[in-house]
């Protein structure tokens, strides 16, 4: 195992950063509020079958990362049914 990570990557940061990457709940648990606008953007991605996560550095949001995953036709139908059951 490497005793010094800086030797491994060949770089030294000029300061220490507090980086959080996670979903809405993870951000709430770590003291960051998720605005309605961010929630809507994440929901828009999630309803198309993408996984969305937030990235914050030193308490400031910088990006919403989303990853598309394949959803089977039966999975799309199940999603539609669940959304209509719980969104009345």
Give an account of the 3D structure.
With 88 residues, the chain is α+β, with helices and mostly antiparallel strands. It has a single domain, classed as Calcium-transporting ATPase, cytoplasmic domain N (3-Layer(aba) Sandwich). It contains four helices and three strands. Strand 2 and strand 3 form a beta hairpin. The chain is elongated. The termini are far apart. The model has no long low-confidence stretch (mean pLDDT 79).
List keywords for this structure.
4 helices; Calcium-transporting ATPase, cytoplasmic domain N; 88 residues; alpha+beta
Number of strands: 3
| Overall mean pLDDT | 79
Count of separate DSSP helical elements: 4
Considering DSSP H and I runs of 4 or more, what fraction of the residues is helical?
40-55%
Biggest β-sheet: count, sense, barrel?
3 strands, antiparallel
Give the second-level CATH assignment, the architecture.
Answer: 3-Layer(aba) Sandwich
Poorly predicted sequence stretches spanning 5 or more consecutive residues? none
Structural class: alpha+beta
CATH class bucket: Alpha Beta
Task: Estimate what percentage of residues fall within beta strands.
Answer: 15-25%
Q: What is the helix/strand order?
A: HEHHEEH
What's the gyration radius in Å? 18 Å
- CATH-level-4 superfamily name: Calcium-transporting ATPase, cytoplasmic domain N
CATH topology (fold) name: Calcium-transporting ATPase, cytoplasmic domain N
Question: Tell me, what's the shape?
Answer: elongated
How many structural domains? 1
Strand order of the largest sheet: 1-2-3
What distance lies between the first and last C-alpha atoms, to the nearest angstrom? Answer: 55 Å
